[in-house]
Amino acid sequence: MDTKILLAVKTRCFPLQARLAVPHFARSPITKCRRRYATQDTLGSSPISSRKQVTVTNDDGRIGWKELSVKEKAARTTQQTFNLSIILTGLVMTGGCAYFLYKEVFSTDSKTVHFNRAVDRIRSDHRVKEALGSGHKIRAFGEPTWNRWARARPIASNTYKDSTNTEHFMMHFNVEGSSRRGVVNLHTVKRPGRADWEYKYLVLDVKGQPRIYLENSDAVPEKKRSSFNFLGMQWRK
User: Fold this and answer.
1) Residues 235 and 228: beta-carbon distance below 8 Å
2) CA–CA separation, 111 vs 158, rounded Å?
3) What's the burial of 13, exposed, middle or buried (CB within 10 Å: 0-12/13-18/19+)?
4) CA nearest to 144, candidates 159, 134, 154, 158
5) What percent of the chain shows pLDDT beyond 90?
6) In Å, how far are 184, 211, 228, 231 from 214, measured between CA atoms?
7) Pairwise CA distance, residues 160 & 124, whole Å
């Protein structure tokens, strides 16, 4: 036993000489021991420490919910809540744009529809062509502004309801032909329980020319007037 202890001490202090001096059969297991260091494998490792931590900015959804820590779950919840809010905001804005587009362009109550119908009536009337000149296509536009583009000029209009709940729409705009300019004024009404607008008047004023009435509901008694509906508007014959 003392010999083994002595050999172990010699091996510890003089490893090379001890190995050469000591026979194979007399070597102790102590001489074969190796120095070991504590590593991550020996201490044990968790799944979270072996991968990149999930944050709000780098979460791509590849790691399952059960594999996330409490902090990582909070980060994923925050990210998904933010993404959902962006989607909902986009849907609300899209719906608002669609509603605005319908009310301003496609609805029968829109200013654009009233303007286009009145312009069609103006361009198709032979009296207007004689007053403005038929050499070129008659052009219609809104109020004069610093903007040189005619389509960008605003059109003056007003909508209100009277005491009988009748809706009134009034508008005026400018027209120009090959020889003269004029101003168009229109007034339409929509009575309670009706879906169509009815012209009260549609007139053209050209400087130096008599007023041209394209529509005038006050000029003819109600019982003698005949009309027909087209594109949401009641037209008088």
Assistant:
1) yes
2) 9
3) exposed
4) 154
5) 33
6) 10, 10, 15, 18
7) 29
pLDDT for 99 equals: 81
pTM exceeds 0.90, yes or no: no
pLDDT tens-digit series, residues 98-126: 887 777 766 777 888 899 999 999 998 99
Residue 234 structure tokens: 């009641």
Beta-carbon count within 10 A of 6 CB = 11
Q: Which helix or strand (DSSP H or E) is residue 70 part of?
A: helix 70-101
- Asked if residue 154 lies in contact with residue 207, where contact means CB atoms within 8 angstroms, the answer is no
State the pLDDT confidence band at 51, using cuts at 50, 70 and 90: confident
Asked whether the beta carbons of 213 and 99 are under 8 A apart, the reply is no
- Strand 197-206 relative to strand 181-190, pairing: antiparallel
Closest to 209 (Cα-Cα) out of 174, 182, 178, 186: 182
Could you give the CA distance from residue 237 to residue 226 in angstroms, rounded to a whole number? 6
Classify burial at 41, counting beta carbons within 10 Å of its beta carbon; exposed 0-12, middle 13-18, buried 19 or more: exposed
